[in-house]
Amino acid sequence: MTTFAAADRPASLPGSVEIFDTTLRDGAQFEGISLTVEDKLRVAEQLDRLGVAWIEGGYPQANPRDAEFFRRATSGELHLDTAQLVAFGSTRRPAGKVDDDPTLRALVESGTSTVCIVGKAWDFHVNEALGTTLDEGVAMVADSVRFLADAGLRVFFDAEHCFDGLRTNPEFAYRVLEAAATAGAACLVLCDTNGGSLPHQVEQLTADVVGHFGDVAVGIHTQNDSGCAVANSIAAVLAGATQVQGTVNGYGERTGNANLMTVIPDLTLKLGVATLPEGRLELLTSVSRHVAELVNLPPHPADPYVGSSAFAHKGGLHTSALGKAGNASYEHVDPSAVGNRTRVLVSDLGGRSGTAMKAAEFGLDLDDRAAAVLTEQLKQLEADGYVFEAADASLELLVRGALGWTQDFFRIDSYRVASEHREIDDRSEGSTRASVALHVDGEPVVADGEGNGPVNALDEALRSALGDRFPTLEHIHLTDYRVRVLDGPTGTGRAATGAVVRVLVDFSDGERAWTTIGVSPNIIEASWRALVDGLVFGLLHAGDEPTLG
């Protein structure tokens, strides 16, 4: 799907752009990210898998970690098939000499064939931040680019604060850009460093620069402080920019950089601009989520294209239209084009068609009667505090129940939990024991468990009772446990300690992951419901699936 027909395509729009990823440099400045060298190598592998043209690995002189990354990456430990590694640095110091500048020397010794250096294109920063003259600011850029180019390196020049400079003192900004181009820069990258520019400004100023320099490539680097980083990147490409710098998932300083997971499909699917090698766009979602795991940040579900909610439908009007008219009724692109998928969320906002479509995702066929009964049941459960869009495993068990299925792995008779806390010699000690009484294959089973809390103790007791009968439980593990306090009892004044709680528990068997939910005024009871659902779901999909009634 493209926005422009061939006849309407702007003359300035390039047929292709180079994607320059700076996740390992600018993205690593995002609050909460701290990458080890091993992390950086694994992220670089994912970027190469996606097919970006350039990977900015960091600043070789900034710290021992980045120095080690470049040493290992360029010594054969990092194998890149599509991308090329770039080392980042800055121009020489004011009144300094290029041949003894430690930053420039580190770039030459980094082992990469391409470097990217930053220099100031805003007179305010030259005067105030550097404390030098405008003539010296221009000379710093020219000398540094020429030194690196003479060393045989391809040089990209990041013109810092360029849009601020082009608006307030364009004569100086152009002097800086011309100095870089004349000295041998392969690409002039216009940086919206403060992130305050708007798309119409970026498009016009970029068009002016592209028109002025002709054959010299122009790139774009945007921050998201005004929420326009992606839009500004698109605007620059519309004006003729042929390199786009950004990061996976929009990581970066302050509010982040342009999110390449949005920029790439916007350019390719909407504008027909080539960004990645053939067949790589379908990897977008998996790379986005893999990198999120590597940087230890949760993926944002509402991210365009790659988010888990990007093609999720909840409202009854939406789900009904999907069932009748297909995905195009409420989806702007085919989710599979970016490696994502359509999801139907079952909630009190949906109707029977949405419930039936969700059942179909589980491979189950709900007739009208069962769909109507289940829809009413779900509305009541959501009124009680359940949210099944976050707990597909519990939802699937409910769908199966509506079709007459009951789990026959075990029958619960009772459980008991006891916690003990003692103060011994100025230190605290605590222990929790749980016991469960079940029937398995018609035989009563009683087992105990001990843990560092009620959920752990109940889990251990259940496994003790069931492990001999179901050895697959050895591979099922709890991976996360989350509690949210809902509204407390009306008029009690106990909105915190007397409130209803919602518990979500994540499980994994090493191959698949699932989430279950429990809701109750008693946190142990809510946890128990989610725990039992999680183990039942794991057993159900381990191969010994009970027959539907």
Q: How much is the radius of gyration in Å?
A: 29 Å
Unreliable parts: 316-326, 489-494, 544-549
Q: What oligomeric assembly is this protein in?
A: single chain
Global morphology: elongated
- Average pLDDT, all residues: 88
**What's the CATH class of the largest domain, please?**
Alpha Beta
Number of helices: 17
Class derived from helix and strand content:
alpha/beta
What is the name of the CATH topology of the largest domain?
TIM Barrel
How many strands? 16
Number of domains: 4
N- and C-termini, Cα separation: 45 Å
* Percent in helix: 25-40%
The major sheet is characterized as: 8 strands, parallel, barrel
As a percent range, the share of strand residues is 15-25%
Strand order of the largest sheet: 1-2-3-4-5-6-7-8
CATH homologous superfamily placement of the largest domain: Aldolase class I
